[in-house]
Design a protein that fits this description.
about 10% strand, about 80 residues, three-stranded antiparallel beta sheet, single chain, 3 helices, about 30% helix, alpha+beta
């Protein structure tokens, strides 16, 4: 688990669960475009572009964009070739 004094943003992050001490469960329940960009190692603009993809399970709440952690993981698994 995450040390209470730290945010998940302070931890090294890779797509492999438990590598470098982080797992998918350590991520917030809902992710923002910036979170997605950080998880994938991309720039902020690319994170927002991913939310615009027709098959991406984005949730729009007013002007805010979110995706649930589980929906993002399922979507990511479908992107593997």
């Amino acid at each position: 688990m995450i040390d209470p004094g730290k945010s998940w943003n302070d931890l090294p992050l890779t797509l492999t669960p438990r590598r470098n001490g982080i797992s998918w469960n350590d991520l917030p329940l809902t992710l923002t475009p910036r979170d997605i960009a950080r998880v994938l190692g991309l720039g902020r603009n690319k994170g927002y572009q991913i939310f615009q993809l027709p098959d991406f399970p984005a949730i729009r709440i007013g002007r805010c964009l979110r995706v649930t952690r589980e929906a993002f993981i399922r979507w990511l698994e479908t992107q593997q070739r």
